[in-house]
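Quick one: structure for this chain?
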Amino acid sequence: MAKGLIRRSGHDQPADLEVPSVTVGTLKPSVHSGRSPARPGTPGARSAVPVPSELPSDVTGFTGRAEELARLDALLDADRSASAVVISALAGTAGVGKTALAVHWGHRVAEHFPDGQLYVDLLGYDPDLPVRPEAALGGFLRSLGVDGAAIPQDLPELAARYRSLVAGRRMLVVLDNAHSADQVRPLLPGTRSCLVVVTSRDSLTGLVVRHGARRIDLDLLPPADAVDLLRRLVGERAGAEPAATAAVAERCGRLPLALRVAAELAALRPTSTMAELADELADEQHRLDLFDSAADDRTTVRAVFSWSYRHLPPAAARLFRLLGLCPGRDVDAWAAAALAHTDLDEARRLLDTLTRAHLVQRNGSDRFAMHDLLRSYALDRVAEDPEPDRRAARGNLLHYYVSTAAAAMDVLFPAERHRRPRLARHSGVPPLADAAQARAWLDRERPNLVAATAAEVGSGWATYVGYLAMTIGRYLTTGAHLHDAFTVHSNVLRVAVGRGDRFAEGAALNYLGLVLFRWDRNAEAIDHYQRALAARREVRDRTGEAGTLLNLGLTDQALCRFADALDHYRQALAISQEIGDRNSVANCLCNLGSVYELLGRCDEAAEHARAALALHLEVGNRTGRATSLSVLGKVHERWGRYDEALGYQQEASAVQQDVGNPAGEAYARTRLASVLERRGECAEAAEQLRLALDIAEEIGDVAGQADARNVLGAVHRRAGRWAEAVEQHERASALAAAIGERYQQARGLDGAAQALHAMGNPPAARERWTAALALFDELGVPDAATVRAALGDPGALP
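Got it. Here's what it folds into:
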């Protein structure tokens, strides 16, 4: 049954988070995106198509830009007659208010886009972490309801899937802070129902010439609007000193970002006149000009930042500097506390101070981000701190990330606690009382954790790259964050090879093999596993060796090479027993049981599955418990003990739903439907299959779809709906053939043959039975006997 019988999660190194290796009957892994309402659950609970609403909060006191807003408003009419998607490109210098304009306009016209608004900050001018189009598209697909396992691997496939999902939908797409037209092109919808707003410091000529974008160049605020913004933000004092207020506006370069920073500082100093503030700013600009003989066009805004920064309390100024060291794009108060080595209440107070000064911006209820100009300024200032202080702060933050990630993983996967890195837990960890909180923290921090592995590759903290990878590897793969997993483990591999660390190299190769396996690139996966196995044997990493052998067995089983799969599983079992790893022993036993069941060796299958179930219960591995139950359910179905089989599959389905494993749930529902069909309960079976197919299609589980459609064909046969049965079996066979899943392909041929024979078409039935028999014989499964009997029965065929 190959990929249709295994749980594509894989096994990892000692501190990696090993997975129960079968969820009998799934192509893709057990996954959870953190968006449980978006996937099927109990019958009738399937959610509607998501309507994303991703625009950031509107800007307080938005001022001016009447002409630009009118030009954007005109697009609402223009796009109705356009032959292609309408694009507006807002271009202008840093800090001129491009994002504020795009977001403000988006909120103003949101009712014109009932199918939602998508937003992404492309970080186009970040020197280290510009957002790749693949990552942006992956985020959009998740927002549009695509489960992580169904997100394609390659950029053309990602873009095509995205265009298909938004086709005909009335949506606004804001692509903020783009670096170039090439970064934007894959993110453009293909139909005129969508409207796109792009912001960039670049003129984006390529979008204008090739895609007909309407460019709106954003200049400095006109003097009157700049003064008006100060009046709104500062209050009556600004109105009482018009000349001084105008001077402040000019010394801020009439840049909205600088004006807001200056206005907040003025508001915090109610006894100072606007004239005094203007003089201070002039002095600061003069000081910076003298200090920086190569002053660039950002000297004006840097002067405003410096002016505001020098008026911060020392502790807030220190946190501002340290925030420049963060590898990701935002932090919460817990991370800020770790960075500054202070307590949570103090960190929140300091962040509030920085927010009021407009030196950070609140992004959600408890998250804080910096404008890229401010981040650059913070990096300039923190470079003046002693190197030991910078190093300590960075180490504190990385320690916090690893420690909290480990705590979250302990909640989600308690049976694998002993495989986390041996690192003292950080004293300040946010509440992670249950699986929902743990998964939510990992989902929120995932971009930062991935960014940390990239940022630390060449630093003195490279060891943390391995720690993070070992800790979150299981979450990334089972959560179907495969692009992130590939990035993280590629970073680990680069560090490991550079340092000659064969232990870490083996772990990275093993994880990369797992990702490639999940992408159906089996030959590449096997190559990575073989290299991982060599490295792990060289350093005598016995636990890692067992994990890689299990992964090789999974690949063999996916390719229907059952003898090779059994051999690899037995090798892994021997090592796991030798080192006393009960969770790994349970995985091996369960995998062996699944292959024995396929081969019709039911007594051995039941023996192995029962032993695996007992161990999974003992170590607290709930997903492993469900997989073992599914194997036992299949064995009892083969034995004709349908009442017992029904109980096993009902329990397996309930557990898979409870742990948030949609791939496992889809398979368990299919297996439950198979038992119901055997009992003649066709309506109940059809309902379970409807739910199973919903999930399998949502997560891109092709083998799961083939399996479910084969069972649905059996339901139709029992009801005498022969044509519908042929249709379902032949669809199942085609799906399976497309991915090389020969067992489901043969099942589809056999089922179609049975229906065709019942319809009075023996020649077509014989043709399909003959093809099915060749496949079943090749695989060595007992199904061949049934087909051979049909072909050899004189009463069945002419």
